[in-house]
């Protein structure tokens, strides 16, 4: 019954993302992430290298594109109308100045934000008319809506592009995850706001599991697998709320350890999850003296490792709270053993 339900859910939540073998999958426009740029810039860097060097994708990024503004929107300092005009400006820049039709964002919050405004434009024509009129009056630009997934109004996330090309990437790997137990943690802003726009939906998302399977990992399940990392803009922004984030991470790690103590890898696609699932393990270690030792990598970092990129210089694993060396040893990835762990983590 469980398998039947999963198959039905999977059939309802398919996305049509072109691969590099498709004529429209070789040229993409992308939106950088303000959160990734400030908290984990190395994940965008390695994603860029893989998309361009290993998949041969032609990436375009408008010099004048701005943040999607979602942090201000969710923090109640920007209204919905402003969000729509900001999104419309970024879309117009990409299409009319760069000549791209396919767009993805590196941040799941931007993905959710752009998906929300596109759906509002579809369901409420007055909002679409307001946005087009305001965009023209304030910037002189023409309104345009991207159609990425199945040629319907939509954008996708960078992890969708990796998933679509997972078999092409797997064929290029220098190392695999054979014999490695791993699990996924999909960002709330990727799957829980608009499950119909997530690869596989919110209950059985495939975007990260598909990568792990293609790379040879043994996928494990545990009770709190879909529990939020607890980041939340209102938690991480105010020190008095930080206990909530650490408490959420502790709940997840306790659950994973009880079910699969030998699982030491969680794969993510959200910048917040990538940072806080790792960093709060450091907090837990200092406060409660419990060390879970679970490595938290995002889809680009893991792919880069297995393709043979340097774990520290290219993949940014020098910024992790959880030691990465035990996972590198388990996979068989070499690193400079003549240096101490501290020396390997010094900025380059």
How is this structure best described in words?
With 348 residues, the protein is α/β, with parallel strands linked by helices. It has helices at 2-12, 34-39, 41-54, 70-74, 80-98, 108-123, 125-139, 158-164, 166-170, 188-191, 209-214, 233-236, 242-259, 271-288, 299-307, 325-331, 341-344; strands at 27-31, 58-60, 103-105, 156-157, 181-185, 218-219, 265-268, 295-298. The strands form two sheets. Strands 2-1-3-4 form a four-stranded parallel β-sheet, with helices on both faces. A four-stranded parallel β-sheet has the order 6-5-7-8. Helix 3 crosses helix 15 (299-307), helix 5 packs across helix 7 (125-139) and helix 6 packs across helix 7 (125-139).
Q: Kindly state the number of beta strands.
A: 8
Radius of gyration using CA atoms only? 20 Å
State which percent range the strand residues make up: 5-15%
Order of helices and strands: HEHHEHHEHHEHHEHHEHHEHEHHH
State the separation between the terminal residues, measured CA to CA. 52 Å
Summarize the main sheet.
4 strands, parallel
- Helix share of residues? 40-55%
Low-confidence stretches: none
What does the overall shape look like? globular
What would you call the structural class?
alpha/beta
In DSSP terms (H or I, runs of 4 or more residues), the helix count works out at 17
Going across the biggest sheet, name each strand in turn: 2-1-3-4
Average pLDDT reading: 92
């Amino acid at each position: 019954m469980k398998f039947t339900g999963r198959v039905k859910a999977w059939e309802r939540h398919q996305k049509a993302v072109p691969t590099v073998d498709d004529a429209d999958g070789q040229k993409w426009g992308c939106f950088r992430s303000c959160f990734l740029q400030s908290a984990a810039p190395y994940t965008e860097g390695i994603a860029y290298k893989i998309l361009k060097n290993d998949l041969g994708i032609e990436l375009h990024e408008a010099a004048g594109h701005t943040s999607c503004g979602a942090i201000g929107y969710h923090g109640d300092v920007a209204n919905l109308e402003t969000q729509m005009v900001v999104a419309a400006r970024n879309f117009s820049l990409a299409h009319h100045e760069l000549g791209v039709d396919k767009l993805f964002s590196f941040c799941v919050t931007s993905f959710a934000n752009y998906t929300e405004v596109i759906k509002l434009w579809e369901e409420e024509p007055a909002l679409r008319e307001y946005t087009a009129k305001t965009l023209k009056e304030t910037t002189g630009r023409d309104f345009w809506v991207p159609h990425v997934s199945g040629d319907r109004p939509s954008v996708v996330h960078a992890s969708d592009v990796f998933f679509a090309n997972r078999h092409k990437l797997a064929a290029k790997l220098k190392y695999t995850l054979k014999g490695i137990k791993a699990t996924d943690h999909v960002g709330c802003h990727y799957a829980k706001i608009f499950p119909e726009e997530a690869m596989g939906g919110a209950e059985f998302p495939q975007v990260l599991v598909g990568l792990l399977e293609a790379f040879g990992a043994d996928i494990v399940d545990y009770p709190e697998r879909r529990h939020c990392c607890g980041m939340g803009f209102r938690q991480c922004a105010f020190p008095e709320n930080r206990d909530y984030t650490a408490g959420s991470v502790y709940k997840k790690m306790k659950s994973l350890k009880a079910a699969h103590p030998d699982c030491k890898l969680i794969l993510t696609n959200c910048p917040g999850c990538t940072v806080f699932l790792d960093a709060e393990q450091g907090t837990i270690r200092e406060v409660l003296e419990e060390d879970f030792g679970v490595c938290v990598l995002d889809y680009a970092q893991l792919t880069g490792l297995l393709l043979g990129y340097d774990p520290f210089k290219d993949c940014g694993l020098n910024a992790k709270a959880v030691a990465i060396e035990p996972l590198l040893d388990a996979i068989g990835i070499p690193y400079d053993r003549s240096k101490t762990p501290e020396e390997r983590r010094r900025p380059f």
